[in-house]
Amino acid sequence: MERNLTQIALFAALIAALGLIPKFNLPLGVPITGQSLGIMLAGTVLGAKRGALAVILFLGLVALGLPLLAGGRGGLGVFSGVTAGFLFGWVVAAYVTGLLAEAWAGKGNWISPAIAAAIGGILVLYPIGIVGMYLKLDASLMGLTKSMYAFIPGDLIKCVLAGLITNGLRKARPGMVAG
């Protein structure tokens, strides 16, 4: 029990720390940060339930006003902004990534957690985030979808990193990785 709580808190802190990496904004004000890598790692390392709980803990701290999002943002207002769909989608993304990582745990290489991260962190997350943006902006759904294409190369790099890091942890600390 204590180990689970510690790992959940550790990954919430990791997501926060990855927000400190300098960010830049693409069109529509959506920041490119390292935090999505933290979401992917929460799923690939902790698994579905604990990964999602780490994201929920992180978002709870943001809701309390801690400036943990990229650019030092925090507070309840971020949950009604343009990127709110992505914030809520992070929970689902970590859960789906974790489910897939757990199902493919026997593969023993970096590719299966990287694919799990790509499915959860891109294929699942993007539609949720795009719908959230659509509800806040006066833009077409197709236009918003096309605007997300610029994020794919960076997010694919993060997926590879998540796979490599997860595989490295699996080798160094076999009992630590759920997926």
TrEMBL record:
GO molecular-function terms, A-Z: biotin transmembrane transporter activity
Q: Give the subcellular location.
A: Cell membrane
Bilayer topology annotation: Multi-pass membrane protein
Query: Which top-level group of life is the source organism from?
Result: Bacteria
Q: Tell me the keywords, alphabetical order.
A: Cell membrane, Membrane, Transmembrane, Transmembrane helix, Transport
InterPro entries linked to this entry: BioY
Question: What are the annotated GO cellular component locations?
Answer: plasma membrane
Coarse class of the primary localization is membrane
Q: Which parts pass through the membrane?
A: 53-70, 76-101, 113-135, 147-166
Per the record, the similarity remark reads: Belongs to the BioY family.
Q: What is this protein called?
A: Biotin transporter
Whose protein is this, by species? Thalassovita mediterranea
The encoding gene: bioY_2
